[in-house]
Design a protein that fits this description.
It is a single chain. The protein is mainly alpha-helical. The protein is built from twelve helices and six strands. Strands 1-3-2 form a three-stranded antiparallel β-sheet. It has a three-stranded antiparallel β-sheet with strand order 4-6-5. A hairpin with a 4-residue loop joins strand 2 (163-169) and strand 3. The longest helix is centred in the last third of the chain and has 42 residues, at 301-342. 32% of the residues are buried. The model is unreliable at 1-25 and 40-104 (pLDDT under 50).
Length: 343
């Protein structure tokens, strides 16, 4: 056997040793990041609250803290897969309320949720799957409260970091971590160890859509301030937010940042960039926003109608593209036939 080859079990142990060595430091970092980021309970977009009468009152940072430290009901397609066959398919589609909070030390549960979020981020950077066995080792938890901890960690991954936790192997209980909504950029440059920044990108795309497909810089920052993100103030996850939004996301073509015509003093606005239009849809963004507000996309009537129209236009474009492709293929085949018949 070659010298540099290692036993799989040794690699497994080494992974946990490496994670354990950095865990204490990163748990503090993740904890701070979650505390100062409220993307998971951001309020309705200013000026649109009348379009969602059933969505409840806008959330505040204080309500987010309470929301995160309680036994919550979460409805997610990916996370509900954790309940391996213990309920019927119909039951699996309902919310899971967790154990009686009177029997759980919420401070201890919160710490385990953060530890699990940290471990998921570690595995995401390593480009590795997450197994249920691994997660139980990390948080030192059996079945009693594991489901609650997993669901809350998965929700943080989704809402704050813009990552989906999806079961990819039901036999071995393995989960993959994927960027949400079909996006292909997580804001982490090659070689960096920063946290994924897709959550804030999705948030901004939502603000733009809710504002009629363009939002002024002032409107975007007004919404971001309500989530604990401020221009000029370094953030644990997003670094310097203004650079990330006006430079990085623009360079990656997810956002357009341009000056509004005929405005004095000068005013700038944001629009979806071509990459955002290519990789995701208005309906996907609206569905996620509705989920964050614990409501339905139809609660935003004008945006819902526009999103459905966008889906129809995309479907027609796909059909047209396939038709053109088939015509080109047919023409090419006929040309080849003519060529051979003349030879």
């Amino acid at each position: 056997m070659l010298q540099n080859q290692k036993n799989p079990r040794c690699l497994y142990d080494q992974c946990f040793q490496t994670f354990s060595e950095i865990q204490d430091m990163e748990v503090v970092q993740v904890s701070r990041a979650l505390e100062e980021t409220h993307l998971s309970s951001y309020p309705l977009m200013p000026g649109n609250s009348e379009e969602a009468p059933d969505a409840g009152q806008p959330s505040t940072p204080e309500s987010h803290q309470s929301f995160c430290s309680s036994s919550i009901a979460i409805t997610t397609t990916s996370s509900s897969d954790l309940n391996e066959g213990s309920r019927s398919q119909e039951e699996d589609s309902t919310s899971w309320a967790g154990p009686d909070p009177r029997n759980v030390s919420m401070d201890a549960v919160d710490k385990k949720v953060i530890s699990l979020v940290n471990f998921m981020l570690f595995k995401y950077h390593m480009k590795e799957l997450v197994t249920k066995a691994d997660m139980q080792i990390v948080i030192k938890e059996s079945e009693d409260h594991f489901t609650e901890i997993f669901l809350r960690a998965a929700e943080h991954m989704e809402m704050v970091f813009g990552l989906d936790v999806k079961r990819v192997d039901p036999i071995n209980h393995c989960y993959g971590l994927f960027i949400k909504l079909g996006l292909t950029y997580d804001g982490v440059l090659g070689g960096e160890e920063g946290m994924p920044k897709t959550g804030i990108l999705i948030f901004i795309l939502g603000v733009i859509f809710m504002k009629g497909n363009s939002a002024t810089e002032e409107e975007v920052w007004e919404a971001l301030n309500l989530t604990g993100v401020y221009a000029g103030r370094k953030h644990s996850i997003f670094g310097e937010p203004r650079k990330l939004i006006t430079k990085d996301f623009v360079k990656e073509k997810y956002l357009e940042y341009r000056q509004v015509a005929n405005r004095d003093p000068a005013q700038f606005e944001f629009l979806w960039g071509p990459r955002a239009h290519a990789e995701t849809t208005k309906l996907k963004v609206l569905e996620l926003m509705a989920k964050f507000h614990r409501t339905d996309p139809s609660s935003f009537p004008s945006q819902y109608e526009e999103a459905l129209q966008d889906e129809e236009e995309r479907a027609r474009a796909r059909i047209s593209a396939r038709s053109v492709s088939a015509s080109v293929a047919t023409a090419s085949s006929r040309a080849k036939s003519i060529h051979f018949s003349c030879s």
